[in-house]
Amino acid sequence: MDDPTDIIGRDRQGEIPWPFSIFYDRYVNRYLVNWFRRIAEDIDAKVGSGAVLDVGTGPSRLPMEIAKRSPRLRVVGIDISKGMIDVANDNARKSGLADRVEFRIGSAYQTGFPDRSYDLVVSTGLVHHLVHPVEAFNEIHRVLMNGGEAWMYDGRKDATVEDLEETFSKLRMTERDLPLPPWVIKRIWPCAHVGYKTEVYTSGKIRRAIEGSPFRSHRVITEGAYVKIVLEKT
Question: Which fold has domain 4-232?
Answer without folding.
Answer: Rossmann fold (3.40.50)
